[in-house]
């Protein structure tokens, strides 16, 4: 057959290239504290492919496609502006309601989307999981990364929107990536727990709508965190998204105050969630293919 | 002289019985935790079984090893352990080289994506790098014969086109060690031949291959050595020809009662030819009316499922097939009895395949073991290549014909 390229001479250099880890040892699972991040790095190309697939198929078979990326946060912002703003007259740190809400809705929608996506991704890929090996960690990672594409588009609209209200970004805007990173890590940390749990217990699926709704109310999306009494502020800050949303809004517009204690508590919680999530996920991973 | 590519020692895998069937609702675990808190941590011996027990083997570089055994003998479990999909409960294995595994055709395909996108995605999932896929892309497309449709979403593909693309991607995987589970025969007859040809090339190209198949002829043609698994244990290992014969002998003579462990919603247990003057359950001695029976055990009530049947020759040509929809079955044993006015096959080895599907989801799809041996007297052309598939008596009359206008 002319199209045959399979011969050992092709395979040999590859073997040498991979010589560093070409011997795989298969053993019963043991140990708690192997985070297996190196494996993840080795498979980073596949991570990219999974994220790419997710982006590609998200708005397939929709009439207006990518427009949804912009419409979803815009419509949510409108609803919030009308009900929480005009009707309930929430304080808005001196910002016009549309800006106040839009600046929170964009990071929030990224977070809730990424969290839901991460929770379902192991179950959605159960066929692949039972048929081929790859580090399962790739799945929740790709879930939170693929949402970033939507986020970037939403963010650009948000920037234009903010500027059109005559609000210029301050130096604080340089901290935006930090808050985004916190949001990504929060979604990842919690997503790691939930995706593994979801693979074992489908109950998680029914819990999610409630969890996401509750979480949004527990975050300063529809109101400023200054409404929370000062002595409860640190408890409030244990919700990492409190620091993220408040910080995001502050960094973008310069209004409100820089989240201090809240941010420290948030960061600590995120680290805990991610670290614990990695251990839990890896612990569960060994039985996922058998039980999913 | 030869180096070891795969070494396994004492590999064992324990599953909880009916793991897939048991409810994985948290409520049940919680309920159990309250009723019998210790049970959660203690593995009840009765509820577990060994899918694989103490299997040790060595595969040398460049060797093509066939894995044979009944359904449920642990072949797929072994392959899943070696390809790292699941971990062993005990024992260890060492694999020297890049491993690729093909446990199904079309792993990772997404219907909404185009052929091109799926080729990249599936390639990446099977272990190819982006560059590697880009380099082989044209080859893959021409192998699949899909040049015109490569930018069409695969949901618009026919099932034949779908498997052709899927196999083409898989066939261009070039690991040093390839683990394959019965995915070879896909598509129409012509494409099946192409696939087998490609596999043969891979086997001859010095690649280390472990191949699981029920098609003993494939094993015979491709493998240097074979391993026979029985009940999760290694029963025998040796040169292909000897081992396959021994296995075939065991299959046709031995007791095949409950050859398959019962799991899932329903499962075909065994098959046999029935009729008044049968000397053997699996040998068809003559043409004329033939009845075949397939025994099915149903564990949970099945509503309106799809049942299909196929008869294949040893080259995996589908000779006859049929299906019915809307089959509803109560739990218990059922016999599916087919009666054919005649089964005019030439002498040889044939195999049945019976399946139950529920809305496209497989309940059971059994490549029946053992094969059916047809021992009729050939009554067609005396030369094989001119005889064809069918063994049908014919009568020739040569009569003067009236000249027509």
Helices and strands, with pairings:
The complex is a heterodimer of chains A (292) and B (405).
Chain A: H1 8-17, E1 23-26, H2 37-42, H3 44-58, H4 67-87, H5 97-124, H6 126-129, H7 138-164, H8 176-200, H9 203-217, H10 233-237, H11 240-253, H12 261-291
Helix pairs in contact in A: 3-7, 4-5, 5-7, 5-8, 5-9, 5-11, 7-8, 8-11, 8-12, 11-12
Chain B: E1 4-16, H1 26-35, E2 48-60, E3 64-68, H2 75-82, E4 90-96, E5 99-102, H3 115-126, H4 130-144, H5 159-171, E6 177-181, H6 189-204, E7 208-212, H7 216-222, E8 225-230, E9 233-239, H8 240-253, E10 266-274, E11 283-284, E12 290-298, E13 302-313, E14 318-329, E15 332-340, E16 348-358, E17 361-367, E18 372-374, H9 384-387
Instruction: Report Rg of chain A.
Output: 22 Å
Mind describing the biggest β-sheet of chain A? none
Number of strands of chain A: 1
Number of helices of chain A: 12
Poorly predicted tracts of residues of chain B: 18-23, 41-45, 254-258
List SSEs of chain A in N-to-C order.
HEHHHHHHHHHHH
Helix content of chain B: 10-25%
End-to-end distance of chain B, in Å? 79 Å
Element-by-element helix/strand order of chain B: EHEEHEEHHHEHEHEEHEEEEEEEEEH
Using only C-alpha atoms, the radius of gyration of chain B works out to 24 Å
Structural class of chain B: alpha/beta
Largest interface: A-B, 45 and 60 residues
Q: Strand-residue fraction of chain B? A: 25-35%
Which descriptor suits the 3D outline of chain B? globular
Sheet/helix structural class of chain A: mainly alpha
Question: What is the residue-averaged pLDDT of chain A?
Answer: 84
> Total number of β-strand segments of chain B?
18
**Roughly what fraction of the amino acids of chain A lie in strands?**
under 5%
The level of helicity of chain A is 55-70%
